[in-house]
Specification:
alpha/beta, Rossmann fold, GMP Synthetase, Chain A, domain 3, six-stranded antiparallel sheet, globular, ANL_N_sf, AMP-binding_CS, ligase, acid-thiol ligase activity, ATP-dep_AMP-bd_enzyme
Length: 559
């Protein structure tokens, strides 16, 4: 491909690609900052030295379960200290982490577990029944339960035993039933001897992570990310933020099973030897309690989180002035949200752009006066971008014209797990990755989003694939056909709307639709609104025209 317009390069080109596994960052943190608090989970603290010991014991426990280099180990956990330790324990022995949303249904978990070929699953106690239900459809040899309560401070663990309603509700939210034949992870770790230091380390070129994404089709497939991909993206982030090693406090409010939270919290915070304040889920009250206890300096988040935190802090009289930097991703950062955050903190917030296939960050706004809310930003260090014709990726569009964004850099994935055809569609000649997003580059080199080629919906930072919701709704009695679209949803980005064609003599309301969807799809994908149409607009080949449906929905009164 000979570009007709210049390739846009990163403004910070001096990236040295480290030749090391992701676990090397933990080794350095222990050597340089062993007594520094690595994790604060609801007030329970773990130093880097203690964390490294937990990782070594966890690695030995996995070896005892028969895990070998290259084996896939599934992790289906909320944010907690054990998630961090298990993640690095899997990597330490050269095995491959497969992250899963712990709230997925048995069917969703079964597909991913079977597809990855995972042989061991480390699972939140509340998700154990779903994994056991799916087990016969997978290659799993061992299911190990992880008790979140084990990570709590001692006084909090004791409080869960109190015979009062609040304690029972809290315990029920954190724990689930575990059959007697399912071992507990913390007991396996406690009984293990640490993995010997001389145990072979994985090479930087080896696979570290299978991260599931819907890509352009909505069919979940695993992006294959190497140690090098993840190490590079963490190092790119360090060059971007210029954070002080061993002096930062990062707030882990994003889910670790998501590519954004995984890189910014699990790998980036380790690389800069930060204290990671871990929250099991995003709750403004929990964040503010942590802020009173251990003020943060950096928070990766999605825009609705930032908005809610400012509102809650103002109401509670809690200062956010310790936060010097924030990075917003997964959806557009509204200018009003950026202004509110910067006024509340006195720090900076910038927007980043990426996808699972780029580990995940590829572009970002600079942490200076040139930042531009609403723009995707400029390429990360060592990253190149091109803007090409939507119909022919070999043809670059003229400067300033819209086209599909292509990305190339050391953080770009190696392909999709066991899907060579889809890999070939996504990774084109010379290592360029098709993003599926239509952008243009302005005169200052900033990349601006014009539209999405993909029809996914982004709500609250989560991706909703319309076809998955539609497939389930078509099984609901009374529904003849359905199209799911996203419409503007305020601070949530987009709101999920289901346009229904009903069978003769049937009536369906929103409550029934939400209940039906709640059985099979993630909570964030459940429609927030329904409209009833006499028919769905289709192309000449019979494909539903979702964009036309969306226009119809927008023309109707919001009810």
């Amino acid at each position: 491909m000979t570009p007709a317009s210049p390739i846009t390069l990163s403004p910070i080109p001096d990236l040295t690609v480290p030749d090391e596994p992701l676990t090397a960052a933990l080794d350095r943190a222990v050597a340089d900052h062993g007594d520094r608090i690595a994790v604060d989970f609801l007030g329970a603290t773990t130093t880097y030295r203690t964390l490294a010991d937990e990782v070594a014991k966890g690695a030995a426990a996995l070896v005892a379960l028969g895990v070998q280099p290259g084996d896939r180990v599934a992790i289906a956990l909320p944010n907690c200290t054990q998630h961090l330790a298990a993640f690095y324990a899997v990597l330490r022995i050269g095995a491959v982490v497969v992250e899963h949303n712990p709230t997925y249904s048995a069917d969703e978990l079964a597909h991913q577990l079977a597809d990855s070929g995972a042989t061991v699953a480390l699972v939140w106690t509340k998700a154990v029944p779903a994994v056991l239900e799916a087990r016969d459809r997978t290659a799993l040899r061992h299911v190990v339960a992880v008790d979140l309560a084990h990570d709590l401070p001692l006084i909090s663990r004791l409080a869960l035993r109190l015979p009062v309603a609040k304690a029972r509700r809290t315990a029920a939210a954190m724990r689930g039933p575990v059959p007697a034949d399912v071992p507990l992870w913390h007991r396996l770790v406690r009984a293990a001897n640490p993995l010997p230091a001389e145990h072979p380390q994985p090479a930087s070129s080896e696979v570290a992570l299978l991260q599931y994404t819907g890509g352009t089709t909505g069919t979940p497939k695993a992006a294959v990310l190497t140690h090098r991909n993840l190490v590079v993206n963490a190092e790119q982030g360090h060059l971007w933020t210029k954070h002080r090693r061993g002096q930062e406090t990062v707030y882990g409010v994003l889910p670790f099973f998501h590519a954004f939270g995984l890189t910014l919290c699990l790998s980036y915070s380790m690389r800069i030897a930060a204290t990671l304040v871990v929250l099991p889920s995003f709750d403004p009250a929990l964040v503010l309690a942590a802020q009173r206890r251990r003020p943060g300096t950096f928070i990766p988040a999605v825009p609705p989180m930032l908005d809610r935190l400012v509102t809650a802090a103002e109401a509670a009289g809690v200062s956010l002035r310790s936060f010097t930097r924030a990075i917003s991703g997964a959806m557009a950062l509204p200018a009003a949200t950026a202004q509110r955050w910067e006024e509340a903190t006195g720090g900076l917030v910038v927007e980043g752009y990426g996808m699972t296939e780029t580990s995940p960050v590829a572009l970002g706004n600079p942490f200076d006066a040139t930042r531009r809310p609403g723009a995707l930003g400029v390429p990360f260090p060592g990253t190149e971008v091109r803007v090409v014709s939507q119909s022919d990726v070999t043809v670059d569009v003229p400067p300033g014209e819209p086209g599909e964004l292509l990305v190339r850099g050391p953080q770009v994935f190696t392909g999709y797990w066991n899907r060579p055809d889809e890999t070939a569609e996504q990774l084109v000649a010379d290592g360029w990755l098709r993003t599926g997003d239509v952008v243009r580059v302005d005169d200052d080199g900033f990349v601006l989003l014009v539209d999405r080629i993909k029809e996914m919906i982004v709500t609250g930072g989560f991706k909703v694939y319309p076809s998955q919701v539609e497939d389930h709704l078509r099984t609901m009695p009374g529904i003849q056909d359905v199209a799911v679209v996203g419409v503007p949803g305020g601070v949530m980005g987009e709101s999920v709307v289901a346009a229904l064609v009903l069978r003769d003599g049937h009536d369906v309301d929103l409550a029934a639709v939400r209940e039906w969807c709640g059985r099979k799809v993630a909570r964030y994908a459940v429609p927030r609104r329904i409209v009833v149409l006499p028919d769905l607009p289709r192309s000449q080949v019979g494909k539903v025209l979702r964009r036309v449906v969306r226009d119809q929905v927008l023309s109707l009164p919001a009810t």
